[in-house]
Amino acid sequence: MTALVVEIDRSEEDLVCGLLWSLDTLGVLIGDRPEPTDTRLRVTAYFPDAGSARPAAEQLDRLGLRSELHGVDPYEYSDRWRLHARTHTAGSGIVIHPPWETPDADPSRQLVLEIEPGRAFGSGSHPTTRLCLRLLERHLPSLVGDPRVLDVGTGTGILAVAAARLGAGSVVVTETDSELRATWELNAEQNRVADRIGPGDTDLSTHAGRYDLVMANLLLPTLRELSDDLVRLTTDQGRLIVSGVLLNQVDELLDLLGELVPVQILREDGWAALCLAPGHG
Amino acid sequence: MAKKKVAAVVKIQIPAGQASPAPPVGTALGPHGVAIMDFCKAYNAQTESQRGTIVPVEITIFEDRTFTFITKTPPASILIKAAAGLSKAASEPGTEVVGSITDAQVAEIAEVKMPDLNANDLDAAKLQIEGTARSMGIEVKG
Asked: Looking at the partner chain, which of A3, A29, A72 has a beta carbon nearest the beta carbon of B28?
């Protein structure tokens, strides 16, 4: 990845950014902490490589703006935040901590999960993760036998690991980003449930079998695409836990999942998580 | 409740619904210890209905590494180009005219941009939009 850095006058921001977008930048970072009195701004635009950045540099040059190009590691900073990952709690019963923190928890009373965040979603810091964990803790034990669980878009594997620790017989996970497999596998091992967690077909339309509990903490556009499959994959006596939606998106989600009825809805900080069951159940 | 101390304010422009940990998001948030994936989830959820446009965002990062953000209107030059039906602006702005927009389109863009412009009223906002259009080599026709 290549960064194009150019210093401009504040009044030129809109024009320069528009030009960078017309020359296919991937994204633009403006200043670092512009003070209101500054008249100069530092603009950094990112391109896939030097070849794709050069036309933008030439175009800026014609406007009398000299820019510099330099290579960047796209993951340098995205990994750095991990150092600040910390312990979180979901309700009173679940504690999630990164491997480098020792939580103040009582394993005899609480479910303690060690989660390596990697580059994946699901460190326990986001409200939707915590809401799903609370729904899981509440509803998984009510399912009979050794419940079969499906975790769609597992990320760090946090929900899959929690389900296995809470008594699921087996957990199938799907993840479209294959680079995250090492992360969820590591978390399954660290929490001693690797024998009950395994990968499944990521294409839900061809995904075979049905599950006593299906979990999907995604975003509304993806839930729109997958809603029919999520319903189909949930057994007649099963439960579906969905999240990743804002409070104002709950009604649309309920419409999408019309065949199921909400059993419980939790809300935190503008987000919602729902547990649903087949209407006749 | 005590007010949280601001550690940094960062401004980035990314396509709606498509935030990822790669730059500029990672570059902007990583050094401040913000959970990048949490921002991506929040930004993508909030901008999903605007997919296909560029939605700038101003992120306030607090000393406890939590954050809030507000989304802004797309850059005027992107709206102007779309209104003129162009994929590129002039390569020699000032000497080359590459397209035109109508006065009504200027008003429409000015209304969209109004919350983010330093303009007292719509007429002042329109003047700013016209200036940006001219500097891109795009004429305004009544």
From this structure: A29
Mean pLDDT of B65-81: 92
Q: Which of residues 43-82 of B touch A (CB under 8 A)?
A: 44-46, 48, 51, 54, 56, 65, 75-78, 80-81
What are the tens digits of pLDDT across the range B123-142? 999 998 998 888 888 989 87
Contact yes or no for A77/B27 (Cβ under 8 A): yes
- Checking if the pLDDT of A32 tops 70, the result is no
Are A80 and B30 within 8 A, CB to CB? Answer: yes
CATH code linked to domain A2-82: 3.30.70.120
Q: Is the N-terminal amide bond of A278 cis, ω within 30° of 0?
A: no
Q: Which two tokens stand for residue A59?
A: 């175009």
Query: Given this chain, do its domains A2-82 and A122-277 carry the same CATH topology?
Result: no
Q: Residue A164 half-sphere exposure, CB side, CA atoms within 13 Å?
A: 24
In this prediction, residue B92 has a pLDDT band, given cuts at 50, 70 and 90, of low
Q: Does A101 score more than 60 pLDDT?
A: yes
Contacts of B92 in chain A (CB under 8 A): 62
For residue B78, which residues of chain A lie inside 8 Å, CB to CB?
18, 21-22
Q: What is the pLDDT of residue B1?
A: 59
Q: Which positions ≥6 away from A205 have C-beta within 8 Å?
A: A229
Of chain B, the percentage scoring pLDDT greater than 70 comes to: 93
CB contact under 8 A, B35 and A80: no
Residue A281, pLDDT > 50, answer no
- Contact partners, residue A138, CB within 8 Å, separation at least 6: A264, A275
Q: Under CATH, to which class is A122-277 assigned? A: alpha beta
Q: Does A3 touch chain B (CB under 8 A)?
A: yes
pLDDT of residue A250: 98
- Domain range summary for chain A, segments of one domain joined by +: 2-82, 122-277
